[in-house]
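User: quick one, sequence for these tokens?
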């Protein structure tokens, strides 16, 4: 590509006259452009030197400048006489030699730079292809940029990333390789879990079998040991039952115990019946107004139910006091010296435990009766208010 001319030749022309009394001859400079051989590499093109402005009052004498080989310029001088006209133009004897040397040096530098650039690019391409063949689709290392050969203006060349140099064929090959390795990877991940699961299951089955065998062996051993005392154990259980029956058959127990048990049974049936009546009365009276009431005796049903609830509650209270008295008597007759042996030999502690359980049931029944009584009282007050409002509306 052709480039702009970058070399200049400076010629000194006379301008103006010298001041009187000074021994120096004033000089002025002009620039003359000369063509330069076009260069190949754009990095080595030198920038043109701006034109030197003419000085109105020159103070320095005309001198011969050294040739600038890198820029291809030559400076010459010309002296002027007192009248201001140029007398002669003297050029340096090395003008032509300097120009030739500048062109030759520039051409040699351009050729060497072109060769180095081509060599570095070919090396980069070969390195990128080798990296694409041996690395994965996303390499982490980048090739270092080559050093620039240009001495006038060093500009480092940036290497293209290897990702852009990988072709579509290499991408497809890598994809096929990954797809082909997926089943192997899945199998490698599943095998440890399957091995661990099978090992744990085998160990669990072995542990269960060993424990079951131990239990069976211990059971057979105990059966053999108890075979000798089986008759004694049966006899011991029968003796305990007979002792309990004998205690219950005593005269002091026969006087109070049958009536207490009969009252306990009837009280339970009565409590169930009264709870059902209270619930039915509450559901029938909710949201129906006073149409369901008997105008002659609107409070009769509520009063009757309250009476039955009071009688059942009183019966439960009497039953509770009788059971408490019987429990305290059995507890006083029992000895506290050897409680463990007494529990297994004496039937009275077992009777006391049974009476205590019956006491708990009676207490719960009385609590339910009290709740039902409160509910019926609230319903009766509501009916009384409704009847009063109805009587006021009729007036």
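Assistant:
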């Amino acid at each position: 590509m052709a480039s702009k001319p970058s070399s200049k030749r400076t010629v000194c022309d006379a301008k103006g006259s010298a001041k009187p009394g000074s021994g120096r001859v004033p000089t002025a400079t002009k620039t003359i452009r000369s063509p330069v051989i076009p260069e190949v590499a754009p990095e080595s093109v030198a920038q043109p030197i701006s034109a030197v402005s003419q000085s109105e009052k020159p103070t320095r004498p005309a001198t011969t400048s050294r040739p600038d080989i890198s820029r291809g310029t030559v400076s010459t001088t010309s002296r002027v006489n007192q009248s201001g006209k140029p007398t002669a133009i003297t050029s340096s004897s090395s003008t032509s030699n300097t120009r030739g040397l500048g062109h030759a040096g520039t051409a040699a530098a351009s050729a060497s730079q072109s060769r180095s650039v081509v060599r570095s690019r070919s090396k980069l391409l070969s390195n990128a292809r080798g990296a694409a063949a041996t690395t994965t689709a996303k390499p982490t290392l980048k090739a270092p940029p080559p050093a620039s050969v240009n001495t006038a203006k060093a500009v480092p060349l940036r290497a293209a990333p290897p990702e852009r140099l990988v072709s579509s064929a290499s991408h497809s090959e890598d994809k096929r390789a990954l797809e082909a390795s997926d089943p192997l990877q899945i199998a490698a991940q599943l095998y440890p879990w399957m091995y661990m699961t099978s090992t744990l299951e085998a160990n669990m089955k072995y542990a269960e079998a060993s424990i079951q065998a131990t239990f069976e062996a211990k059971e057979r051993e105990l059966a053999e040991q108890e075979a000798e005392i089986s008759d004694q154990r049966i006899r011991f259980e029968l003796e305990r039952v007979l002792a309990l029956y004998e205690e219950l058959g005593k005269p002091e127990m026969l006087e109070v115990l049958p009536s207490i048990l009969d009252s306990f049974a009837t009280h339970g049936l009565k409590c169930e019946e009264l709870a059902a009546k209270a619930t039915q009365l509450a559901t029938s009276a909710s949201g129906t107004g006073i149409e369901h009431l008997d105008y002659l005796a609107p409070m009769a049903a509520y009063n009757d139910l309250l009476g039955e609830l009071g009688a059942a509650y009183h019966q439960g209270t009497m039953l509770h006091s009788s059971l408490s008295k019987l429990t305290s008597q059995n507890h006083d007759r029992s000895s506290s010296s050897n409680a463990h042996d007494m529990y297994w030999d004496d039937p009275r502690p077992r009777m006391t435990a049974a009476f205590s359980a019956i006491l708990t049931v009676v207490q719960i029944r009385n609590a339910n009766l009290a709740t039902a009584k409160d509910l019926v009282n609230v319903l009766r007050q509501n009916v009384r208010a409704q009847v009063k409002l109805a009587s006021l509306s009729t007036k």
